[in-house]
Amino acid sequence: MAFMASILVGCGGGGDKEKAAEGDKGKVIKMRLAQSKADNHPVSQGYVKFAELVKEKTNGEIEIQVFNNAVLGSDRECIEGAQKGTLELAGSSTPNMASFTNKFLAWDLPYIFADKEEVYKVVDGEPGQAVAKDLEERGFKVIFFPDYGYRQFVNNAKEVKVPADIVGLKVRTTNSPIEIADYKAFGANPTPIAWGETFTALQQGTVQGEGNSYSLLWDSKHNEVLKYATEINYNYSSDICVMNKKLFDSLSPEHQKAIMEAGQEAMQWQRELANKRDAECKEEFIKYGIKVYEPTAEEMKLWKDAAKVVWDEFVVPGQADPEYVDSILATLGKTREDIFK
């Protein structure tokens, strides 16, 4: 915890909350926020906006330096740094957080969210609060959930319209066991690879495809190693911004309030940007020459039918907790049958 002593100058080295509040007033507290996405990605811009708002709301008493492009490590490395306290804040896509709480497995279930309106109901509602509570027990303070977007299937081997077309393709996935299961169900050969290594893996033929949002793919120049996109919306991924819990607890109530308010304001700002940017990047894909295929209703039914086995496998105690899945569906006012009808 050496970094705590250097950052929280004047906080009394573990004194009570009142002393901490007196100690960090008027001091410039420097923090780092690290994550893996490109500088111009909406998630990255949301983190920069957050840092600006924190500085403004604390009258310059807290300064957050944002590190994008995986310069301080992969999602996993940054998140573990925030948990251990060697890094103050970190961002990650939620599938890479599944090992910290299995509630993210429920978020990863294929086709659980029909649209962004449903996503926001869950993230902003009781299911999102339950995730934050779990993560507090593991050393994190959840600050906010930037909008990452729906994952589409993209590849450089052939046009894919239905699951039968994907059989045998090597596909990069996150570490989410559900995303791995998704691609097994579709008939592909899933291969978990860190995001920062994916471009090279596609370039060298280690994998032939991946699942990701249009904006992340375009902003990371993956269009240069891709030829085809299939818009199947099989998985929505949120991003998450967390702070080391001990560090957060050591701050004054005023600074804690400022950080949380900045997170909520940055999240609303970033959501608008993310939705606009994803639509723009889809058009950029098309202009670049990527062949984008939008399945018919009948073809989408085939993708959903293929994914049913993932629900059967994971919506069980110890995996995607059935009660938590039910709480998500109740929040959305629908049933599992409604998803696959």
TrEMBL record:
<keyword id="KW-0813">Transport</keyword>
<protein>
    <submittedName>
        <fullName>C4-dicarboxylate ABC transporter</fullName>
    </submittedName>
</protein>
<dbReference type="GO" id="GO:0030288">
    <property type="term" value="C:outer membrane-bounded periplasmic space"/>
</dbReference>
<dbReference type="Pfam" id="PF03480">
    <property type="entry name" value="DctP"/>
</dbReference>
<comment type="similarity">
    <text>Belongs to the bacterial solute-binding protein 7 family.</text>
</comment>
<dbReference type="InterPro" id="IPR038404">
    <property type="entry name" value="TRAP_DctP_sf"/>
</dbReference>
<dbReference type="InterPro" id="IPR018389">
    <property type="entry name" value="DctP_fam"/>
</dbReference>
<dbReference type="InterPro" id="IPR004682">
    <property type="entry name" value="TRAP_DctP"/>
</dbReference>
<keyword id="KW-0732">Signal</keyword>
<dbReference type="GO" id="GO:0055085">
    <property type="term" value="P:transmembrane transport"/>
</dbReference>
